[in-house]
Amino acid sequence: MSVRVRYAPSPTGLQHIGGVRTALFNYFFARSQGGKFILRVEDTDQTRYSDESLQDLYDTFEWLGIKWDEGPDVGGDFGPYVQSERFDLYREYADKLLESGHAYRCYCTAERLEEMRASQKKATGYDRRCRDLSPDEEKKLAAELEEKGLKPVIRFKIPLDGATSFHDEIMGDIKRKNKDINPDPVILKGDGFPTYHLANVVDDHYMQITHILRAQEWIPSGPLHVLLYQAFGWEPPKYCHLPMVMGKDGQKLSKRHGSTSVREFRKEGYLPEALINYVSLIGWSYDDSREFFTIKELEELFTLDKLNKAPGVFDYKKLAWFNGQYIRNTEDAELKKQLIPFLVEADVIADPPTDEEQKVIDNFMELVKPRLKTLGEIGSLVKFLFKDVEPEDPEIAVPKKLDIAKTVEVLSAGRDLVASLKENSIEDVENSFRSKSEELEVKLGDMMGPLRVGVTGSNVSPPLLESCELIGIDESLRRIDRLIAALKSRL
RNA sequence: GUCUCCUUCGUCUAGUGGUUAGGACACCGGGUUUUCAUCCCGGCAACAGGGGUUCGACUCCCCUAGGAGAUGCCA
Fold first, then answer.
1. pLDDT tens digit string along A373-390?
2. What is the mean pLDDT for each group of 10 consecutive residues in chain A (491 residues)?
3. Please, what's the largest Cα pairwise distance for chain A?
4. Model's pTM, two decimal places?
5. Rg for chain A, CA atoms, rounded
6. A238 is catalytic
7. Which of residues 373-432 of A touch strand B (CB under 7 A)?
8. What residue is closest to B73 (Cα–C1')?
9. Strand B neighbours among A 313-372, CB < 7 A
């Protein structure tokens, strides 16, 4: 039987790193096996559902360049692929469980459950009050509940003794005593919607899912799901519980660790290829040294047996490093295209860019490439090329070993050399700088430094002479003169 | 509390009885360089602890410790 796997997110929040990695592993596994990758939207929680989350799901995967073979938007033979549209199916199967004696109606209200929990010394779960009701008791409780305008829920009967086990492709055999399983979980809620457990099992069966690759946080409900399959008389799929993605403190990755949604990373200027590459390496490896993989390569090389058991910590710095590598390997034309929105966003260029701006962008590409870790850094890096910038304090131009007077002298000499850029090459002018700095008995850096501040407004910038050419020599001179004047006034 | 799972450098990992325990990020040094980056070179740094099994354990078994997850009419 050919492989069929699914990613089954719940549209209750933005797509985050953990979920996306699960999707990716499913996708890579499907591709490597020549199988199908399916998207199923699990929108059974009406209270937490949001349209924005659903939209974010589509936006995220479109941006990542990951496509599913079957799903709500592309169709398929096993639809509908949205659980709220499969409503009747779950009711039907809950009823079947009722008939076969594997489930029962529970008339406990939220209030009673709360009281019950409060009175429990240890959290032992539902007390199974409604599990073995006599017909009379049941009638009475049903009437009471109806009076309050509420509907009963359906709970699954967990066997009181024995044990349930399943095989996990990564973890090996996992066994759990039935008495340790959450006592009689709700499978159909009061609002008629199924809970995750029921919907998941029914859908995975009907969609002929062969392998379930999901996060390890689901391990504890594995036995429950197996019991459900057994109750229906179905063959459970193969399980493969993926190691989780943690924050630096070892807790589940969350907002307080930094960005977690793909949307945020996108906004900060991470490239989808870099994100995918990095995220794939948390909990999975290919061999002892290779770590650069295109999406295509991952589609071929991914294997379950290289998956790790232990959870992995998300390392923002390594992601940034990957991103820098990917930026440097991007063609200029392509990078430019990606950079423009960030320049617009930073209010550095017009939207759309003018011809003049286009030219500047073309020309700074090589200068900027090795300096970027994220696309979002472009604004502050090249702002001075488009806008007049002044140092917040002219004295940051004064090198440690020089005083203001000497700085002015050096600046004036440098100014003339910058002016000579009009007729000489950068190389020639650079040589002139060398001899001039010797003559003035200052280090080359101390000569360039003040000019840099004058032209770029900062002590850190792309190469100075190239920058001057990009801005225009006259404009550069104007800025330098302005700095000289500002420093002179402080003498 | 209970249950389940996990445990190699700070981090991601390679390793499946015999290795100087390898790579990458980070960090630290050095080189290139007009600053910052890039790039190159070098360094620091790990088998959680204790018992076994074995001629020999990072590798197999047991215990302890630590960590995580689950324990919902959320997924």
1. 999 999 999 999 999 999
2. 94 96 98 97 94 97 98 94 96 96 94 88 87 92 92 96 93 92 95 96 97 95 96 96 94 90 97 98 95 97 95 97 98 97 96 95 96 97 95 92 93 96 94 94 94 96 96 96 94 83
3. 107
4. 0.94
5. 32
6. no
7. 426, 430
8. A189
9. 313, 315, 317-318, 320-321, 324-325, 328, 370-371
Q: Mapping DSSP to helix (H, G, I), strand (E, B) and coil, where does residue A234 land? A: coil
Eight-state DSSP code of residue A283: S
Q: Which two tokens stand for residue A352?
A: 């759309």
pLDDT of residue A350: 95
> C-alpha A318: how far from its chain's center?
14
Show the tokens assigned to A363: 């020309």
Report CA(A310)–C1'(B6) in Å, whole number: 5
A301 burial level (CB within 10 Å; 0-12, 13-18, 19+): middle
Say whether the CB atom of A221 is under 7 angstroms from strand B: yes
Q: What type of residue sits at position A7?
A: Y
Q: How many CB atoms lie within 10 A of CB A47?
A: 6
Q: Which residue is closest to B10 in terms of CA–C1' distance?
A: A248
Burial of residue A27, with CB atoms counted within 10 A of its CB: 0-12 exposed, 13-18 middle, 19 or more buried: buried
List A140, A177, A248, A255, catalytic entry: A255
Protein-to-nucleotide distance from the CA of A336 to the C1' of B38, whole angstroms? 19
Does the CB of A32 fall within 7 Å of any strand B atom?
no
Please report the ipTM that was assigned to this predicted complex: 0.96
Q: What is the pLDDT of residues A334-347, one digit of tens each?
A: 999 999 999 999 99
The reply to whether the CB atom of residue A476 sits less than 7 A from any atom in nucleic acid chain B is no
3-state secondary structure A23-68: HHHHHHHHHHCCCEEEECECCCCCCCCCHHHHHHHHHHHHHHCCCC
